[in-house]
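Handout for the seminar on molecular recognition.
Each group receives one record of this type.
Step one: identify the two inputs.
Step two: read the structure output and locate the region that could contact iron/sulfur cluster.
Step three: write two sentences on what you found, then compare them with the reference statements printed after the record.
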Amino acid sequence: MPQTISQKILAKHAGKKEVQPGELINCKVDLVLGNDITAPTAIKEFERIGVKKVFDKKKIYLVPDHFTPAKDIKSAEQVKMMRHFAHKYGIVNFFEIGCMGVEHALLPEMGAIKPGDLVIGADSHTCTYGALGAFSTGVGSTDMAAGMATGEVWFKVPEQLKFIFKGKLPKWVEAKDLILYTIGQIGVDGARYMSMEFTGPVIDKLTVEGRLTMANMAIEAGGKNGIFGVDEKTQKYLHNVRVTRYPLLYSDPDAEYKQVYTWDISKIEPQVSFPHLPSNTKPVSKCSHVKIDQSVIGSCTNGRIEDMRIAAKILKGKKVHPGVRLIILPATQKIELAMIKEGLTEIFIKAGAAVSTPTCGPCLGGHMGILAEGERSIATTNRNFVGRMGHPKSEVYLSNVAVAAASAIAGHIVSPEDL
Amino acid sequence: MKGKAWKFGNNIDTDLIIPARYLNTSDPDELAKYAMLDADPEWVDKMKKGDFIVAGENFGCGSSREHAPIALKAAGVSAVIAKSFARIFYRNAINIGLPIMESPEAAEEIKEGDEVEVDITSGTIKDLTTGQTYKAQPFPKFMQKIIDQGGLINYLKATLKTA
Ligand code: SF4
């Protein structure tokens, strides 16, 4: 039977030749990830299982990134618990302040992910790594605990969806807009339980960073995973992060999909998701009446160096609107350093932005930029649920980097074209 | 199990079930205090132990935080009845032993305040106020085993011992 990339990876890890949608399988995992919110619960559950060691000391990644540098005593205790656990079981990949970053930006950057891998992470945006041709999906803390103990996880083989992007990327339209557009079209449960495969001429031209942004938000359509084929761009990216020896995986041309969506994106504008769902998208030209109090550029969706360069291009020599707080969060230390070297940090600070150390911070309403009642933020993050960035009566509008930067200057949501 | 039905809409996300600002702890009783806070700030005080949540499509979408089903379980929710569940929430609920039942008809027809009786093993949902009976989607055998053991950890403990 012809298979998709996702099916091929699942089959291989279940010790099977092929798998069918709906089948329940047990898979070996290549990597288990947890953060400062999910790992503490997983650690408690792990200790309850009663095994003496973890399945593989090198395949567990612990990244405290959500409330770090610890925002309060409770958060500090959570990280302390992770530190002790890592020490007790000899877990090598524990990344703290000084070497940390937002987990989903950090792992690809350090070469932890390779095509064909099966990755589970106790964080819903674990689907990000599909950009590198891995089958990667979010689970809960108990699954993480079981994964750490046994190196295995159960799955129901998902049905397959394919998204073909045709045409030419218009000016100011980024990978982020392609995924927001997709979610706007199919809804927040349009891919519930399913695999999302992204292909087409537009995808071929996209950078790996752009693909990471897209795979990151597969969960926002309810997807189990988002995945891309491996091409020269992927290979070059992997070479740069010193990943060698991996399978080159493609979906068979006659593989079966539950649905295939084909979109010509030549005429789309940058997209903005209105509160309170990522699927509430509108073209940017339809939202200039929206005044903002804050703009956040960062997160596992759009906190990479490529994003920072786009922001700098727009902010160079400009001033942030006096009514707006612009907060810029590089996703990893490496990105932060590159920003300094390339002079981007100086551009941001001169424009009146606050530049932070890597953290999830305001993305989930943790710290470093929480909204008060009635306040509005535009953000390059991935969720705009009620209360996501602070007060339940605050609002988050999701956009690409260029729009978030331009809006910070204008004081209201605007396309960089109209600055 | 018998209790009152509390209705919620479609796409109830995990930030509504337990806001991220309370995730700096993993203590179930602490989490229970904030269950459904951003969907209905008074719900925790109004609901009684044993009550049911009845919701629309895609219940539990959003983050992978297991704190969401944990908070509901600790608050005393007997079961969540919904038209459909988001994938990670579904896994998590089974893994931690929060009963969930998928029944579009029950989720549509049961009204807020109705007395509901549920038999988890047979998957029967009875609306005592209207007299209607519904059947929830049965779980695959393997998942039923996890549920019967009271969650994934107990299941693993049992299987690892016999292995
Ligand atoms: S940056 Fe936001 S979405 Fe990404 S892992 Fe952190 S909290 Fe989650």
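Reference statements: The mean pLDDT of chain A is 97. Residues 73-89 of chain A form the longest helix (17 residues).
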